[in-house]
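Tip: read the tokens left to right.
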């Protein structure tokens, strides 16, 4: 149902390096780009984009907001979590089972946005 998600940043070049590296690990590529935005995705899939806010004000973190990246297996969850931390992300919950069938890991990007990478089922 989701077509795309945008995540605000105060340093687009830094965010492009961070999300570009994670996208590459997951088999996604840059899709759409402009002077204030870069999107990543795969053919026929949803897009994740990082952007500087349109109104010119600083990007801020939403309280209770979290973006989730679907992984094909638990090994990819582990790989993306480790990659994110190596790129400067902050740990918000190491990879592991949450319930019987949800395997996830949580981190905050360089701007403080919370993300989860998961494999369900």
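Filled-in amino acids:
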């Amino acid at each position: 149902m989701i077509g795309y998600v945008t995540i605000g940043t105060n340093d687009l070049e830094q965010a492009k390096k961070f999300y570009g590296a994670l996208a590459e690990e997951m088999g996604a590529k840059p899709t759409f780009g402009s002077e204030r935005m870069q999107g990543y995705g795969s053919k026929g899939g949803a897009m994740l984009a990082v952007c500087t806010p349109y109104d010119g004000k600083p990007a801020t973190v939403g309280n209770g907001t979290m973006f989730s990246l679907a992984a094909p297996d638990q090994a990819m969850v582990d790989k993306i979590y480790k990659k994110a931390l190596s790129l400067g992300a902050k740990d918000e919950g190491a990879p592991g089972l949450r319930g019987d069938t949800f395997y996830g890991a949580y981190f905050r990007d360089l701007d403080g946005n919370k993300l989860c990478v998961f494999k369900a089922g």
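The longest strand covers residues 90-98. The chain has one domain: 4-53+65-120.
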